[in-house]
Amino acid sequence: MNRLARLHEAGVSIWLDTLSRELLDTGEFERLVRNFAVTGATSNPTIFAKAITGSDRYDDQLRELAREGRDDPQQIFFALGLDDVGHAADLLRPIYEDSAGRDGFVSFECTPDLADDTDATIAQALDLWARLDRPNVMIKVPATAAGVPAIEELTASGVNVNVTLLFSVGRYEEVIEAYLRGLEGRAKGGEPLDRLASVASFFVSRVDGKADARLAPGSPLRGQIAIANAHRAYGRYLERFRGERWQALKAAGAQPQRPLWASTGTKDPSYPDVLYVERLIAPGVVNTMPEKTLHAFADHGDVGAALEADLSAATRVLEEAHENGLDVGQITADLEREGVEAFCDSYGQLLECIESKLAGLATEGVPGRR
Q1: For 181-197, what is each residue's pLDDT tens digit?
Q2: Active-site entry in 140, 188, 250, 357
């Protein structure tokens, strides 16, 4: 059994943290599913911006959309991106069926310009869900203050939600509560809970990137804050998805909202390139890996000890951080806002690229113009 298969056997679902027409058209995505234990994939505005701006594989579809008179960049993006997500979901459908609806998902994100608008997020998520029309897709909703009530409403409506841009344990508490309330609302309305799935995407390496910059160069806390923060989140997951309240939902067919470790490629080259995979192994979690991290783990990753329910070590790390003047709460709040802004920038670039490509395609065949 190879390293990634052993990781999967340890209870970690391995999802690819990228998606593109090239991966799908060349058969590389299928190869990763077949040989690298990949059982899901995620996308976001930055991923699609890179995919569409860096490839001509979307040009034929762009020409067709232009011939149909489609000129709204957002709707064109949806047409391109939803095709990719739908294709990937179809390839992963056997995994979804074999896992009884627990794995085999692909995610598409609500546009980041709606991150602070609850009603608009709900409306767009419902539209995207209907357009994809597959049980093994998830709609990504940011864990902003406005996103939390949207998560509850969408869950109650039967939409699979991937909660993204989670950094703080406090916000994670709100997200879990929103999911539970959504399930309870759905159950009260007599709607089924089985096959409804959700993940909470907790971003990891960005926390160390911000924390390390505020620590002394030789501090033993460097490279430790993000894992301790994630470990505390895992502890909250174990705590909230047990007890009478959860057992009642479970008896009605509900699945727990699984923790998903995102941003797991190391940013600091002095750290092991599989740090945020090896240190965050636990049954029932998802790890979304960039291709580089996936191949690194396949080459030299080690499936060692799993995260423990005992949070004392993680608590000590965070207490020491506080004693050293590190405000982890402020760091995670800053990262949430910066994450939304970064996705907004990527989304703006994506729309500009689509407009530029449409303009270029419109001049094809016109004498004297290129």
Answers
A1: 999 999 999 999 998 99
A2: 140
**pTM (2 decimals)?**
0.95
Question: CA angle, corner 156, sides to 151 and 157, nearest 5?
Answer: 95
Q: Quick one: which H or E segment has residue 147?
A: helix 147-156
pLDDT in tens, 235-248: 999 999 999 999 99
Let me know if 251 is exposed, middle or buried by CB neighbors in 10 A (0-12, 13-18, 19+): exposed
CB under 8 Å to 309, separation ≥6 — which residues?
A: 235, 238
Residue recorded with tokens 């990228």: 18
In the three-class reduction of DSSP (H, G, I as helix; E, B as strand; rest coil), residue 296 is classed as: helix
pLDDT (mean) for 126-152: 98
Count Cβ atoms within 10 A of the Cβ of residue 187 and give its class: 0-12 exposed, 13-18 middle, 19 or more buried: middle
For 53-109, the pLDDT digits (tens) are 888 899 999 999 999 989 899 999 999 999 999 999 999 999 999 999 999 999 999
Q: DSSP for 99-121, please give it.
A: TTTSS--EEEEPPGGGTT-HHHH
User: What is the rounded distance in angstroms from the CA atom of residue 236 to the CA atom of residue 309?
Assistant: 9
Q: Confirm whether 267 is a catalytic residue.
A: no
Six token digits for residue 195 = 């096959």
- 39 or 368: which leads in pLDDT: 39
